[in-house]
Amino acid sequence: MRQPRSGPGKRRGRGPRIPAATLRKQKAALANVDQITGAKIPKSFVFSRGKLPSTLRHLQQDLRKVMLPYTALNLKEKKRNNLKDFVNVAGPLGVTHFLILSNPKSLPHLRFAKSPQGPTFTFQIEGYSLAADIANSQKRPRCPPGIFQNSPLVVLGGLTGLGNPFRSLVEYFQHMFPAVDPSTVKLATCQRILLLKHDKEKDVIEFRHYSIKLQPVGVSRRIRKLMQNNQVPDLGEYKDVSDFVTKAGYGSESEVDDEAAMVSLPSDVDKLNRASRKSAVRLQEIGPRMTMRLVKVEAGLCSGDVLYPWPVEKEVVGKKGTETGEEVEGQEDEDNAEATDESEDEMEV
Length: 349
Fold this sequence. Notes:
The protein starts with 19 loop residues before the first helix and ends in a 21-residue tail after the last helix. Strand 6 and strand 7 form a beta hairpin. The chain is 23% helix and 23% strand. It is α+β, with helices and mostly antiparallel strands. The protein has 8 helices and 11 strands. Strands 1, 2, 3, 4, 5, 6, 7, 8, 9, 10 and 11 form an 11-stranded mixed beta sheet that branches.
């Protein structure tokens, strides 16, 4: 005999059904919250002001890859866009950090700005190498696409104990990416390092970007490839399987001379790097590489009181410095972003 329903539109023993649209919104909101700090995950825009030569456009794209996955990799810019347009779009998308490239008459400049109210740190790029240049200089370049699925670990060197403006600069760099809890982080997600090191003698900051590779100690290169590729090797030229494993010329590659580079993993990372054995940590530069000098700090977003002047050419701190303040007020500027053939802007994070 069928039991009557408990009420119209209700299912006995279950709560009310949550609409699929609401579930998607809740999931999206949870994905935008840092599970450690409870704050919103920092996101970024990397764009340019004024026309850039080809090499600087490639540098801009390399910087977008560094800021992945919480940046707009395919951000399109149009000539009519001014700084206020990016600020207006940044709010709804949750964008908190701007990296702005420009090319005045002296040297390229890179501004790190906090949206929407600042501060802004202006660096003069005294030298740089693209990611493609770094790869071409290496015998075996390593940059698998999967390493950009997680944010890099930020390592700061020589920036502590210097006082302002470096104290506020350290705070800016520390909040460019989501926080990491060493006790709960999954080691498999730690695949990149962003190194920012201050050279006290030259008073410059070295910008380096590395990939992290774990290599089990005591395992030959042939065995590593066998386990990673999951393919049966060709043993036709060998009389015994042991000949394949112990072939001369590969034993030395499994050993690591530097004891400091060996770590005992607290958990399994992959098939080769297990918690029960030691692994060697190796860093390989993937670029881009920059040498930057801090020349200006402004209290606002590319405007406001100058907190840190530096003796540079007048065209840098004078004329060009007032230009950005006019952009925030919504005025058109001759050095707007380079025009593209796109009919609409693509500003997605």
